[in-house]
Records
---
Amino acid sequence: MWRNERRFPAIQVGALVGAALLLSGCGGFGRVEQGRVVAWDAREGVVTLILDSNFRDPERPKYDVLPPVTVRVPKDASQMGPAPVSGRLVELDVAASRAVVYDAAGHRLKTVSFTLIEKVDNVPPEDTRVTRGRLPAIEHGKNIIRLYWDKGQQIVTIFVAGGAVSADDWRTGDEVRYYFKHPGQALRMMNVTRTKLL
């Protein structure tokens, strides 16, 4: 059921699925969805996601489902993973020099072209260059952005022509997976980005 289930022994996968179903109580199966977090209201316990329409294929995610969905975190706090980080960068294609950013004001996804300046590969998320909160870093006036792309485990420096550049547009929101029976209310939620699966 979970995207990374291929990394678990079969008995652990079964336990995860069984636990999720028990959470729902008697009567019927629930569903699992996954997406990128574009907004997180910690006070209200509400996360807003751009869903991955292709999340059954872990190698080719496609964050393109609009409008974004708003989901309340599980009422049982023990069924909630690490709190998510929100951001509006939902896709980065270094080879094609393009990014997809969620435009909150226009409620749409926009494609932004860029010029690659530098790419540093094999940077794990726990690297201090990432964890110290220095990214994204913007050279205002020059429209040069240094950001971390979690999917590729890369630190990327790019130039974006024209217009004002916002840090929120270049911050990657965490991937969150949740199990539910009633839309809008998660029974279980896992922060895929911040959870190490063995």
---
Amino acid sequence: MEAAELFDNWLEGAVKRDTQVDAHGVHVTVAEVLSAHGMGRLDFGGSEYQEAGVHPLQPLERSPSDRYAWWRLEAGTYGVRFNEALKDGAPACLLVASARLLACGCSLAATVCGAGALRSQLIVPPCGVRIKQNARIGLLRPPT
């Protein structure tokens, strides 16, 4: 499957096709950054499973003329929710970090995504990072 087909047939919530589709996949945009505040639980059978508690971080305006605000993130691990989602029936796709995110010293947990909202874990290095709302930080790779 080509990236354009993934975008046109299986993706919803995208921001701008001409800047999001390239030969390698579909660039996905950050909608929300989350910080964990409560311990999760995992067990063998799943009867005691509990997701970790999270709360959204508020982005801040850097200047009054900015159309979108920025998250200023210190070193650590954060949850990320993307604007885009895969429609029901979509094939499984691989979500990886964008080259620009990697160049900022950050990483994104590679995630196999099925139908529904796209989420991943963002790892920020000791120097920190600033991320603007709707920044393209992930690449959704279609199945080959």
